[in-house]
Here is the input.
Amino acid sequence: MIIYGFNPVIEALRAGRVRRLRVGARADKRTDEVVALAKRSGVAIERTDAAALERLARGGVHQGIVAELAPARDYSIQELIERAAPAAPLLIVLDGIEDPHNLGAITRTVDAAGAHGVIRQARHAAALDGAAAKAAAGAMALVPFATVANIARALEELKEADVWTVGLAGEATDSYDVVDYTLPTAIVLGGEGEGLRRLTRDRCDRLVRIPMAGAVDSLNVSVAAGVALFEAVRQRTRKSR
Here is the structure.
């Protein structure tokens, strides 16, 4: 797995996931800090030219830093639930998010909200490296993921574990803020353009919408994730006081 850019690489180094660091000719304070951190972590460092970095980053904005990562641990759904203890689990389920920038932005929001992990499908899903890691600004090395073969079955597994599944859907009648997110909750997000697939929609315990006051009828999926997650944070913070 390849990631690039200062923030993603720094967080991956701190998490102990970097196997090899490739650094260009750029010499500045921040590059020196990344190299020093890599040395302290015992990571192999290779000096290389700009063309090689461009190839590795596939044209992404690498800032002169590219890292090769060890494979990320893939958690089970049950492990995500157990890691949340003693808090009530707050999870995100991605039903066909294929844009890496959306995946990265959602991951960054999951970390910022203190949610407990992301469940994604193996197929028809953005990869966890490259542009997604860059958009996540380091959160990709921090947020635990569970990759499943089938989202509908994953929702059934969540229900069996007493986790409420709440799908965001524009056609829903209830507003997103009437849900009690202090309970164990998985917020389910559909893919760009299509939204939730029928089988996914049918298996959610509840469908809710984010009311739109303007001319557009929907939000970008990463923005919708932030709205729902921070409503959950608001409710949980209020309850804990």
